[in-house]
Amino acid sequence: MHFMTALEDAWQQRNSLLCVGLDPDPVKFPAHLQGRPDAIFEFCKAVVDATADLVCCFKPQIAYFAAHRAEDQLEALIEHIHLAHPDTPVILDAKRGDIGSTAEQYAIEAFERFKADAITVNPYMGRDSVDPYLAYPEKGVILLCRTSNQGGSDLQFLDVDTPRGRMKLYEHVARTVAEDWNASGNCGLVVGATFPGEIARVRELTGDMPLLVPGIGAQGGDIAATMVAGRTAKGAGLMINSSRAVLYAGRGEDFAEAARKVALDTRDAINAHR
Fold it and tell me: Is-catalytic flag, 95?
């Protein structure tokens, strides 16, 4: 499955720009899952099965699995998604960024061990640190550009001199990825919903490149503003992520049904502005 093809199909066939982030925190699990050795897998699997027809992709965050020695459950979860929902791409949210030889190992981990369809990557160390991911042309490589946290402005909003003139650092990242790194057409960018003005600027600089947009829901990003700023002419081009609002919509044994309701409401709220 080519990540970009699967993503475009999901946008159209499921009529959805919603990405559900899988950030499992066992402390927040329903009582009937507490203490189970497979609790992380069972919790995430239930949410996945309840929402798969409503999303364009899923985004497991690797730290939430690794912190609990649950990498094997992450492997099992991605395998389950591919088997039970084969047209649903999986983005491994790892934000890797290291020198080339180490990046090669991270790429093997993401694409060969976990079999993710895409990965988030930090571009700060430059092109040679990203090349090992780009060497998998069928996989998505989604690079941090303008992140949703307030501290992102410490660096991303700095004015820098570039071969294309003076611009903000995040603008330079966007143009570099779009014009120099995207030869295989498999790149995307992370741009936070908390900065709709910057979403619009990134869209201006990158054309129809897919944007992964965290920050709605718990972080306060506005869906309408995000859509106006970032949708393409075809009403697509975005993976709007919601994690905690969906995952922890309910705390009882019906948590998956509660997650589905929030996912449905969020998808419909997004579509109201397509």
Answer: yes
The 10 Å CB-count burial string (b at 16+, else e) for 197-220 is ebbbbbbebbeebbbbbbbbbebe
Q: Are 80 and 45 in contact (CB under 8 A)?
A: yes
Residues 153-172 as b/e (b if ≥16 CB within 10 A, e otherwise) read eeebeeeeeeeeeebbbbbb
Q: Which of 59, 95, 139, 168 is catalytic?
A: 95
3-state DSSP helix/strand/coil % of the chain, to nearest 5: 50, 20, 30
Burial class (CB in 10 A: 0-12, 13-18, 19+), 102: middle
Question: Is the model's pLDDT at 128 over the cut of 70?
Answer: yes
Task: Please tell me whether the overall predicted TM-score, pTM, comes out greater than 0.85 for this model.
Answer: yes
The 10s digit of each residue's pLDDT in 190-211 is 999 988 999 999 999 999 999 9
